[in-house]
Amino acid sequence: MTSSVLSPLDTAFLRLESAAAPLHIASLAVFAGPPPTLAELIGLLASRLDQLPRYRQRVVEAPLSLGRPVWVDDPDFELARHVHAVRVPAPGGPDETRALCARLLERHLDRDRPLWETWLVDGMSDGTWGLLSKVHHCMVDGVAGTDVLAHVLDVEPGFPPIAEPAPWSPSPGPSWAQRVVAGLPRPRPSTAVRAVRDPRALGREVLTDLRGTRQWLSALVPVQANPLLGPVGKERDWLWVDVSLAEVRRVAHDLDGTVNDVAEALVCSALRELLLASGTPPQPRAIRSLVPVSVRRHGSAQDSALDANEVSALLALLPVDVADPHERFRQVRDELRRLKTSGQAQLGERITAAAGTVPPPLLRAGLVLGFRLPHQHLTTVTTNVPGPPIPLYGLGRELLALHPFVPIADRLRLGFAVTSYAGRLWFGITVDARHVHEASVLGPAITRALGDLMT
């Protein structure tokens, strides 16, 4: 793969990383035993790496930050630098496993190498083993991340022979001048030209953008101050809970919603219990969640490349003040329906695309101004990405559980990642361990909330 420039959104994920907040997405895939050797795992990844060309590339900054960064082949790439083994401390239960993974996820990825790593996690008391995968958010979004998993694992339970790795040699990197030119802003077609080409499409776009602008401006109203909002520390807790996907679908059908509506309502219920446990009475405007939505188009270059971020976002107020679980669900469902037709996601996508026309120094300053300064507009993030619907296998062992991880940053001390796999809906909850002390209520609250909606 030849060098390519990072998109404005990918660049933003790179720039917004801080000492206290690494911005990698991750998952822990738990497999039936016995665990493989580290050499077997490296052999499997080596045989599939030709399908993931970005995993051999590193980020190179433009000289003097005059352009956006570019991806270039790493001339010193060694797979063994990215694949490691670690053992869960005794007694090797779920608590020890989560704590070990949380410590590994607190560490930043090395910017001088391709921005990913995989850990073979052994020593679990029940005989299972895990693959902890970390990938920087500037490389993939959640949808691409699940596609990567499908490319590495198998759909058949047998132990297929590991193929010989395809030959690979790094392409020469761009010169000093080429790196500057590659990352310079690119002009977009003028409004006048687009008006001549397709005036109706432009008119529809303008109306959508006006609706979206109104919705984005409404999100500037601060939410209630609460313990979930403030400077983020370096220590992380990572909590897991899973529920039956069939039961979630039944609730969605019975209450005229979607699986995503139910998942968001379960998160809302958990946040309500967390506020109550922390002694903070939930108010009508207490929680606003950033809800990423995929704008990935099947058949696009990004879709086939399994890299780059193709996401926008909705900003949803969650009715944590509502005590009745069914009414709380209805309000969550109606809020998400309203936002889906509000133009928020489309406007966000176009703003991101327009950022490619902004000189990189100004874009960097804008990111700092928009995300580093104190604010009180967002409280959490909730990302829901459908995962593989069928069982998968790694080195002949069945994948039993898939725990997702979403990074937290920018004064958001709590984040929820949701994914589906083989009949279960898996929740991964990322917690700022220094500032959020009642997070243990969240998992049981999600389970109870689903039961409440089924009655």
Description:
The chain is α+β, with helices and mostly antiparallel strands. It has two domains: 4-182, Chloramphenicol acetyltransferase-like domain (Chloramphenicol Acetyltransferase, 2-Layer Sandwich), CATH 3.30.559.10; 191-389 and 406-454, 2-Layer Sandwich (Chloramphenicol Acetyltransferase), CATH 3.30.559.30. The chain is 36% helix and 21% strand. It contains 14 helices and 15 strands. The strands form three sheets. It has a six-stranded mixed sheet with strand order 5-6-7-2-13-12, with helices on both faces. Helix 8 (245-254) crosses helix 9 and helix 9 (259-277) packs across helix 14 (442-454). The model is unreliable at 299-305 (pLDDT under 50).
Estimate the global geometry from the Cα principal axes.
Answer: globular
At CATH's second level, what is the architecture of the largest domain?
2-Layer Sandwich
The helix content is 25-40%
Mean pLDDT: 84
Provide the number of structural domains.
2
SS-derived structural category: alpha+beta
CATH topology of the largest domain: Chloramphenicol Acetyltransferase
Physical arrangement of strands within the biggest beta sheet:
5-6-7-2-13-12
* Largest sheet geometry: 6 strands, mixed
Question: What fraction strand?
Answer: 15-25%
* Strand segment tally: 15
Unreliable stretches covering 5 or more consecutive residues:
299-305
Radius of gyration: 22 Å
N to C succession of SSEs: EHEHEEEHEEHHHHEHHEHEHHHEEEEEH
How far is the first residue's CA from the last residue's CA?
54 Å
CATH level-4 homologous superfamily of the largest domain: Nonribosomal peptide synthetase, condensation domain
